[in-house]
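Give me the 3D structure for Inner membrane-spanning protein YciB.
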Amino acid sequence: MAGKTIDPKLKTALELGPIVVFFAAYLLLKDRVFTIGGTEYQGFILVTAGFIPLMLISTGLLWKLSGHVSKMQVITLVLVVIFGGLSVWLNDERFFKIKPTLIYLLFGGALGVGLLRGESYLQGLMEATLPLQPEGWMILTRRLCAFFFGLAVLNEVIWRTQTTETWVYFKTFGLTAAIFLFFMTQGAVFKKYGIEKDQG
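Predicted structure for Inner membrane-spanning protein YciB (200 residues):
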């Protein structure tokens, strides 16, 4: 299916909306306990249960409207369904908390495999929006690979040593801010190895 033009604001809303709703719902329900079918569920579990169909709907709409979803978005969605579902089914929030760790290990591992083969898989994902010379892609890929592994370790430390509320804040704001700051600090690479779009 060919890509379609989609309003950038709508695209951002579909990508970030479920996370914002998850955070808001958690703040509302975090201290409540719900009894369903004779089993008690913490608010976090119910919010997780609602997050799964919300992610499915938003990703489906994104695909329908734009004609495209990235491999990273598909992998993330699959892990949300699997580990979110396990958390709800087993009434154990730990499965959902492990999800970011696995996502970053998968992304970091995939980039690492490419590097071992002398390739930048990142280039194939982002070349259309971020033109760089091959050397630039390799540098950026090595750094992002290490960064993803670092985030995986950090998520493990946070959820295992901090409260659920602290982890929710970390997942909602900390991880997003970390990725934003990573790319903001790569200005030297973009400047040195960037390719002008009208070049050639």
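The radius of gyration is 19 Å. Let me know if you want a second pass.
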